[in-house]
Amino acid sequence: MIDELLQSLIPLSSPPSGPGWNHASMVELLGDVPLRPASVLIGLREGVQPRIILTVRTSHLTAHAGQVAFPGGSRDAADGDAVVTALRESEEEIGLDRTLASPQGYLDCFETISGFCITPVVACIDASARLRPSPDEVDEVFEVPLSFFLEPANLRRYVMEYRGRQREMVEFVHGGHRIWGATAAILLNMLERMKRA
């Protein structure tokens, strides 16, 4: 299962630079505006049943409060590349020791209505890694089996209206957590690259 995912990734040697796979729909919503680079970590916790690491953002944040998200954020000038950003943000948000993360490749870039172009970095996380949420940014860290996302019945599609336009959306619901928005869209891209969607 992990091998199937890893074989579908964009190699570390060829990082994607954008535009995002959803660029056309974002131009319709936002216009052709400059986007800020950001990076998220799709952490695959190794073990008998590999799991994807997710967070719940704290309720007091000004953007995406209370939403399920991958650890990640804006690229700092000192970061250099998407991998460094993803590992730095994961260390800050969930206490992930970067020496226990082994980057494997990328998913396609994704553009958000909040004005970011996100590069998703996929990394294998050692089973022994201890994670602790930073209370300033994260209320909870939880893990979902990779197999859950690979089960077609767990992918829910719906349509929502945004700025007078109909948008096709996807979501997953696991253990009381609603996974939607950019996080669900990035997971959909993972499934599409694996030819599972």
Q: What form results from the Cα inertia axes?
A: globular
**How many H/I helical runs?**
5
Count of strand segments: 11
Instruction: Kindly report the average pLDDT value.
Output: 92
Secondary structure class reads alpha+beta
| Radius of gyration, CA atoms, in whole angstroms | 16 Å
CATH superfamily: Nucleoside Triphosphate Pyrophosphohydrolase
Q: State the assembly state of the protein chains.
A: single chain
Question: What kind of sheet is the major sheet?
Answer: 8 strands, mixed
Domain Nudix hydrolase: 34-168
GO molecular function: coenzyme A diphosphatase activity; metal ion binding
Keywords: Hydrolase, Magnesium, Manganese, Metal-binding
Cofactor: Mn(2+); Mg(2+)
Secondary structure elements and their pairing?
Blueprint: H1 2-7, H2 23-30, E1 36-45, E2 51-57, E3 68-69, E4 72-74, H3 82-94, E5 101-106, E6 110-111, E7 116-125, E8 138-145, H4 146-150, E9 156-162, E10 165-174, E11 177-179, H5 181-193
Parallel strand pairs: 1-7
Antiparallel strand pairs: 1-2, 1-4, 2-3, 2-8, 5-7, 6-7, 9-10, 10-11
